[in-house]
Amino acid sequence: MHRVKDFIEKQIIDLEEFSYKIEEEKEFIYVLFSQILGKKKEKELTFKFFDGILFYHSLNYGWKPVEKVINNRYFWIDLLS
Predict the structure, then answer these.
(1) Given CB 3.0 to 4.6 Å as the disulfide criterion, which of 36, 38, 41, 70 pairs with 17?
(2) What is the pLDDT of residues 17-72, one digit of tens each?
(3) Chain centroid to CA 52: how far?
(4) Cα–Cα dist 74/57, whole Å
């Protein structure tokens, strides 16, 4: 769960007005946003570790390893949609 929190914090480090909490259920980690860029918005994002690598699940794109910078776009596409 610590790596997920680090990933989220790194993504929004220079941005304001985000509220979220992190929950863990079995092998899945859920990030539940209640505010995104100052707007009240309920958004749930799902993460999971595969062989020690942090993956994010996108309904449109499937599982993507988000600690690789190029795959961060899938996180942002889902977060802002």
Answers:
(1) 38
(2) 999 999 999 999 999 999 999 999 999 999 999 999 999 998 889 999 998 778 88
(3) 17
(4) 9
Tell me the sheet residues that pair with 23: 30
Strand, coil or helix: what is 13? Answer: coil
Give the closest residue to 77 by CA, choosing from 51, 52, 43. 43
Return all residues near 32 (Cβ < 8 A) that are at least 6 apart. 20, 21, 22, 23, 42, 43, 44
Give how far the C-alpha of residue 48 lies from the chain's centroid of Cα atoms, to the nearest Å: 10
* Pairwise CA distance, residues 7 & 47, whole Å: 11
* 75: CB partners within 8 A, 6+ apart: 11, 45, 56, 58, 64, 66
pLDDT tens, residue by residue, 60-71: 899 999 987 788
Q: Are 33 and 18 in contact (CB under 8 A)?
A: yes
- Asked if 19 and 35 touch (Cβ cutoff 8 Å), the reply is yes
